[in-house]
Amino acid sequence: MRLYDTLSGGVRDFVPLRPGHVSIYLCGATVQGLPHIGHVRSGVAFDVLRRWLTAKGFDVAFIRNVTDIDDKILTKAADAGRPWWEWAATYERAFTAAYDALGVLPPSAEPRATGHITQMVELIDRLIDRGHAYEGDGDVYFNVSTLPDYGKLSGHRVDDVHQGEGVATGKRDQRDFTLWKAAKPGEPSWPTPWGRGRPGWHTECVAMCQEYLGAEFDIHAGGMDLVFPHHENEIAQAEAAGDGFARFWLHNGWVTMGGEKMSKSLGNVLAIPAVLQRVRAAELRYYLGSAHYRSMLEFSETALQDAAKAYTGVEDFLHRVRNRVGAVVPGEWTPKFGAALDDDLAVPAALAEVHAARAEGNRALDAGDHDAALTHAMSVRAMMGILGADPLDERWESRDETSAALNAVDVLVHAEIRRRAEARARRDWAEADTIRDRLKEAGIEVTDTADGPQWSLLDGTDK
User: Fold this and answer.
1) What is the pLDDT of residues 427-451, one digit of tens each?
2) Which of 21, 211, 285, 365 could, after both became Cys, cross-link 102 (CB 3.0–4.6 A)?
3) Which stretches of 197-297 are DSSP H helices?
4) Was 264 annotated as part of a binding site?
5) 161-175 as b/e, with b when 16 or more CB fall inside 10 Å?
6) Does residue 445 have a known ligand-binding role?
7) Residue 360 labelled as part of a binding site
8) Which is it for strands 297-298 and 255-257: parallel, antiparallel or unpaired?
9) Does this model's pTM top 0.70?
10) What is the pLDDT of residues 352-385, one digit of tens each?
11) Where is the motif ('KMSKS' region) (predicted)?
12) Under CATH, domain 2-252 is a member of which superfamily?
């Protein structure tokens, strides 16, 4: 297997540090707001990597962190008049729900920054003792000039470095970055040898990587927007502390709209629940995972619907075989499929194999060759399973059936609501009340609102 390593700038053979075991750390969410499809692309992309490594027989330790203390979290919580911890917990649940909706496997562990303050303080102490960090006015900074090869991941020259941090009186050089922030009135803080404060963003991931995966591990992954300063500064801290850290650095491309990165600041976000009103979760998963992980994914409704159509084609084939031949269990992936994923996780080429097998299977089915059709269907299931989008996996089938049932109920209920509205318009209050009572007996409650009648299941599921 070969992977593109950002640090070396090329594709190279992947050999894990420990035979039979692969350790991966993925930079997770800063839980400041609702997740959009740009946020979860890394989750989908590296879920495919994890699934492929597992299919190849590796024991995979997969860590994905949660940044639950951050300037943006504190600011947004304060603006909303909510406790910072409640704000972070609310949106952590939203990210978890989004990952789960898209079939992303739960990580082996999902550590929070606030749960690893002790490890961060210990790391900063080591850096100070080794002459790479210093305290200033209650803050602690990393001295960039102490590392001759600083900038090797991103290609930044030390003299041109801009950390994106504000001017601080305790900072000796504006190229330095913050490891620990002194407490401000009203902000959460923890006791340290330098006074009360809270961690800098770049410090938390180093501490958590090492806590769960050790001083050296196989793969550090994340979005390409994290290359600088976040990942550059992670490398600086780890190596300054004398640790080997990540052996491979993998970065996924952005989801873009109009050529620009999808972000809240640009106002071009697409929240997961909104997109799932237009396509099924499995179809969105297929769309987000269909491009090569390092490429930009330009969002458009046409591209989304094309992906949904391609997924439906695979789904229809598997259903045809199951209906005509019998049960379809996952079989073996094709050699070309395996070769594609071994080539830096080339999902587009892997999907070409899926659709080639689907086409061959359909031809075999039409010709009455049920054995060949079943073999192709089993192969398709195996390949789509590795991509996390097997249409016959019970998680997708059960969810699709639930969604279809709910949609059918929605159509029927709205027909009743229209009849009720017509009865009210002609002042036939008895008929209107009869319709309402009939719906209530079926477990459906109708409420008249300023936006028109709304219905909900009596268990609280609003529509």
Assistant:
1) 999 998 888 888 887 777 777 755 4
2) 285
3) 201-213, 232-240, 272-275, 281-290
4) yes
5) bebeeeebeebeeeb
6) no
7) no
8) parallel
9) yes
10) 999 999 999 999 998 999 999 999 999 999 999 9
11) 261-265
12) HUPs (3.40.50.620)
